[in-house]
Automatic annotation (TrEMBL):
SUPFAM superfamilies: NAD(P)-binding Rossmann-fold domains. This is Nucleoside-diphosphate-sugar epimerase. Signal peptide: none annotated. Residues 12-213 form the NAD-dependent epimerase/dehydratase domain. It comes from the Bacteria. InterPro entries: Epimerase_deHydtase (IPR001509), Lipid_A_modif_metabolic_enz (IPR050177), NAD(P)-bd_dom_sf (IPR036291).
């Protein structure tokens, strides 16, 4: 099959899935998006189908004909132990049956506390949190499927998201809407620490590239990030773009957020073990993917300006 006619199947229609669909369409691919409801606004030219990928039969049927499958699904934190292993098994089986390549988006949770050391592909998976340990087990399982020759799998690992479509992030709905309305901007932990963030279009471009390149498979990759700065510096860049100063509303601990009534109880219970990400430097070294595929992060000022424009459009 001509590569421009390949079918690429994306499970999940969150920010990653939708932005990835745009990127793949721009590369001339056929794109099928799958979510549970079959509803939602998707990029023009993409097919949207309803399907519960936790059902192995559904996952296999909707993957038929795929050259590449992308796992861009998500689930509430409290349901990870129940849902994520089942999704992993069904994705691997579907890729194996159809001879498709499998690209998985992942988090930094499996590294655990790094005490300010830059994270690379060689960083040990030493998480002590429940979610971090689960992510480490899943990553091992995905790559083991590749090692034993069952399916071709690669993992792209991103830092905290920001960008168009990104709401549920520490650099998302608590920052940009408040900044645009000149309200206090919520910042988690210590905003003076260096903190890497992943821009959503860079994530999509990288996942699409990983899916194309044979040498990407059997490995995990840290996706491109701009040179690290502090969250406070990022807020200052937002101020420069908007032309006025912002007031910060610091949340130094999850308990303080609970006292202020900012987070619901379920989120507090689930995120408490991950709050260390905002109380120690979070530094990603993405030089490996940059060297291997020539991928570079969008400059922060440009990425933040595009994010602000998207939020402005949503406010109209």
């Amino acid at each position: 099959m001509n590569k421009s006619q390949e079918l690429h199947v994306i499970f999940g229609t969150g920010p990653v899935g939708l932005t990835l669909a745009e990127e793949l369409l721009a590369r001339g691919k056929q794109v099928r998006l799958v979510n549970r409801s079959g509803k939602g606004a998707v990029p023009a030219g993409a097919e949207l189908i309803a399907g519960d990928v936790s059902n192995p039969t559904v996952a296999r049927e909707l993957s038929q004909g795929a050259a590449v499958i992308y796992n861009a699904t998500h689930a509430p934190y409290e349901r990870w132990p129940e849902i994520l292993p089942r999704l992993q098994e069904n994705m691997i089986e579907s890729a194996a049956i159809h001879g498709a390549r499998l690209v998985v988006i992942d988090t930094l949770y499996l590294y655990g506390e790094t005490h300010g050391q830059p994270m690379t592909e060689e960083t040990p998976h030493t998480a002590t949190s429940r979610k971090g340990r689960l992510r480490a087990e899943l990553a091992w399982g995905y790559l083991q499927a590749h090692r034993v020759g069952k399916a071709r799998v690669t993992i792209g690992r991103a830092a905290d998201f920001f960008g168009p479509r990104v709401l549920n992030s520490s650099l998302g709905q608590y920052v940009f809407p408040a900044a645009l309305s000149k309200q206090p901007v919520l910042v988690l932990g210590n905003s003076d620490l260096p903190h890497s963030y992943s821009y959503m279009p860079d994530i999509a471009r990288s996942l699409a590239t990983l899916g194309e390149r044979d040498e990407a498979f059997g490995k995990e990759w840290l996706l491109p990030v701009a040179p690290v700065v502090s969250t406070r510096t990022i807020i200052q860049l937002i101020e420069q773009e908007l032309g006025y100063q912002l007031q910060l509303f610091p949340i130094p601990s999850i308990e303080y957020g609970q006292e202020q009534g900012i987070f619901d109880q379920t989120f507090i219970e689930e995120y408490r073990e991950l709050f260390y990400q905002h109380t120690e430097p979070q530094i990603v070294d993405s030089s490996a993917i940059e060297r291997a595929f020539g991928l570079r992060a969008t400059p922060l000022k440009e990425a933040l300006a595009a994010t602000i424009r998207w939020y402005q459009e949503q406010a109209k």
